[in-house]
Amino acid sequence: MALEESTPNSSSIPPIGLGLCTMTAELIADEEGFYSKAKKYWKNIPPTVDGMLGGYGHISNIDINSSTRFLQRFVGEGSGKAGVGCALDCGAGIGRITKRLLLPLFKVVDMVDVTESFLAKAKAHLGEDGNRVGNYYCCGLQDFIPQPQRYDVIWIQWVIGHLTDAHLTQFLKRCQKGLRPNGIICVKDNVSHDGVIEDEVDSSVCRDLASLRSIMQLAGLHVLAEEKQDNFPAEIYQVYSLALR
Question: Would you say 63 is a known binding-site residue?
Fold first, then answer.
């Protein structure tokens, strides 16, 4: 998902109701085209850290360091903390997050991404640490089903904008079933200031916090913590991390 802010094309935010959110439905007339266009976009992106970050590869260290501090609050020894057995990297790309955030903390990491060439590149990018990658899943998250009760942490970064509201809600529900006792889901992504903004270049949307909270509530998740990313360039979207259970 693009980091740089695009020209706003906002929808109004409906109140939380009993049914699924419909915010993206107002923007996405062709759901099949929405997914196929995104898949085509990422096939043409170079399998590098700079490619994964849309030309903002220089922010990777800042991102990883902040994510590490955030995640360490919820894993390890202590009452109610998640274990360190296995994590899932969603929208993993070439393994930037797997290599520098998850493998240093977890014994095994699984990776899922829609772009086959990225996962192929990951094996070289990860080096010897790649021996601790359990599974490479080539699949869109709208279709991916995490193995039940396998994961201590499911990390979802810069990829939820490629899912419709309904598919994001359903995916988060499936992630819940994939958690071990005390496991958590972490979502880190771009957040708009108001409403839902469409990016036609990479075929994604950027939601505001109210929209995200609404979807998470519909998925039956409780927000344990919410943190705004500091020290990113001013011209890109604000980024938030949310820990969910």
Answer: no
115 annotated ligand-binding residue = yes
The answer to whether the annotation marks 229 as part of a ligand binding site is no
> Would the annotation count 157 as a binding residue?
yes
Judge contact between 108 and 130, C-beta under 8 A: no
168 assigned ligand-binding residue:
no
Residue 57 is encoded by which pair of tokens? Answer: 């590869």
Any alpha helices (H) in 127-208, and if so which ranges? 165-177
| Distance linking the first and last C-alpha atoms of the chain | 24
What is the sign, positive or negative, of the torsion defined by CA atoms of 57, 61, 63, 64? Answer: positive
> Alpha helices, DSSP H only, in 44-160?
49-52, 60-72, 96-97, 116-126
**Would you place residue 5 in the very low, low, confident or very high pLDDT band (cuts 50, 70, 90)?**
confident
In one-letter notation, the amino acid at residue 82 is A
Q: What is the pLDDT of residues 116-162, one digit of tens each?
A: 999 999 999 999 999 999 999 999 999 999 999 999 999 999 999 99
> Looking at residue 95, what DSSP letter applies?
T
C-alpha distances (whole Å) from 79 to each of 76, 155, 182 are 9, 21, 9
Q: What is the fold of 24-244? A: Rossmann fold (3.40.50)
Interatomic CA distance for residues 114 and 93, integer angstroms: 8
